[in-house]
């Protein structure tokens, strides 16, 4: 009997992610077009309630910060050259604890590199992009379903943790049209952005039990709202090294580290008796999945870990890796950036790498390391 619920259409990842962000409640897109993130700019004009074209990437983050202080949930999309210009303002937004979402579309570097060649080269720069060694949450989809679900997760995390959030994608993920069944996508509900309850007088950076201060937009007629990007106390007043201000700064790390279970997303394809674990993320997962299928056809055992929350690194992810005798990291970059974040630059006999730039990794290249 024919499945009447199937809704096949030709679509790309940019459209799926954009639609999910809007349905989740993101209401402003601010952009400066840069390849290969241009489709977000195009779709953003059609789907977001408000759209603004900025003069440059520095202005993008400044405008996003301004909109966020007023209670809007802004989104932008860019590639590495744009991200490089946004870093100072991103640090400002992080310290102010302003909810927003940045979609980063990776392309081959260094510098301007090749705008039309995909890569997975921006994870290392995102690791510690906040001065002081702080992390912002970084989610990464490996397929269209991930793009849909993780876009919602980005908005939810931005609001509930009061923070900028990054969705790390790639050129192939967001620009390649595929025939896709839309019925596979779950319903998306709007994230609740109402001010959570608090006791006593309002303090913009109140130390709460969940480590996230209640957010009140500027311009509120009943409460004084002070937003500050310098070291500040709970009232948002500039204080350099007093215990309250230092405690507030430490909280910026703790709110992610101590609630990491709420952030971690991954998929594990296990096989009883497997000693080898392929670890991959993003666009390289397709090749990893195909390699697993071919390897198992030969009667050999292997498992696959798809990491979707790249930063902060969850202990749960590390423990999964430690349960296998041999790891094979599959990443479309030269150094193996996820491997280095977790295990450093030291080489281990039981950790192998499949790395490449200029073209996507093929399943055969993974199978060579499995042999």
pLDDT averaged residue by residue: 96
Structural class: alpha/beta
Specify the CATH class of the largest domain.
Alpha Beta
Number of domains: 2
CATH superfamily of the largest domain: Thiamin diphosphate (ThDP)-binding fold, Pyr/PP domains
The quaternary structure here is single chain
Describe the protein:
The protein has 371 residues and is of the alpha/beta class. It folds into two domains: 8-184, Rossmann fold (3-Layer(aba) Sandwich), CATH 3.40.50.970; 266-370, Rossmann fold (3-Layer(aba) Sandwich), CATH 3.40.50. The chain has helices spanning 13-23, 38-47, 57-69, 80-96, 123-126, 144-160, 171-175, 243-257, 285-297, 315-322, 337-343, 363-370, and strands at 8-11, 28-31, 50-53, 74-78, 100-108, 114-118, 138-139, 164-170, 178-181, 266-269, 276-280, 303-307, 309-311, 326-331, 351-355. Helix 3 runs parallel beside helix 4 (80-96) and helix 9 crosses helix 12. The chain is globular and about 70 Å long.
Which characteristics define this entry?
371 residues, alpha/beta, single chain, Rossmann fold, 5-stranded mixed β-sheet
